[in-house]
Input
Amino acid sequence: MDSAALWKLSYGLYVVGVKKQEGQFGGSVVDAVAQTAAGDRPVLVLSSMTNNLTNTLIKKEEQFMLSVLPANVDPFIVANFGFQSARDVDKWANVPYSLKNGLPVLDCTVAFIHCKVVESKELGTHTLFICEIIDAQNGENIAKPLVYADYQENMKDSAMEAFKQFKETDKPPAKKTEASKQSKETGKSPAEKKAQWRCSMCGYVYDGETPFEELPDDWACPLCGFGKDTFEKVE
Ligand SMILES: Cc1cc2nc3c(=O)[nH]c(=O)nc-3n(C[C@H](O)[C@H](O)[C@H](O)COP(=O)(O)O)c2cc1C
Output
């Protein structure tokens, strides 16, 4: 079997936030999420690895929050939540977040979804959590959601590099810490403070230090590879 073929299923990447103990949270990156019913009582399923702390915490708490990662997510966020266990580190201390319904939501999220476990099924290496969606809201980030296949093809190496740097310096990336400070001080998301440019091909929103207009003519979208002229200013 070629597991890369499964990356073509079109789904996203999410960060689970779940209570660990009073005032402390665990959680991890997950891709195995699907909405399986709509209407008045929407249902979502999450497949969670049994040897992860997140799995143990969800079983105990019977609820969790999903932050939907944006296409322009800082690869460090994936590394922070996906490459290490909350048994060893306070993952949420490394990223900007706020509490919604008592659970952590990433500042960069495009939407957050509060799930209550109503049933679960053990599948050996994984537990399938069947959940009622008890709240769902859009976030402030106007970027499109990250597609799992794009992560696998374009972002995985950056996530690994970000994790390597984090391990070497023992500090999360400074830029994002600064950005989170601004958003908390002004009450505005960093995205609101300067003009944004969005790729009309894949939805990637440029968020670099260099003003978009000053990028070289041969600059290309880091997600889909299309040129600068496919970008539109977001008003
Ligand atoms: C891209 C990516 C996708 C992942 N998808 C899932 C998933 O769907 N379900 C899951 O249980 N773990 C998934 N993981 C693995 C967990 O995020 C990872 O094992 C994490 O370190 C567990 O941390 P914890 O022990 O704090 O729960 C994924 C990791 C990455 C990097």
Summary: The chain is about 20% helix and 30% strand.
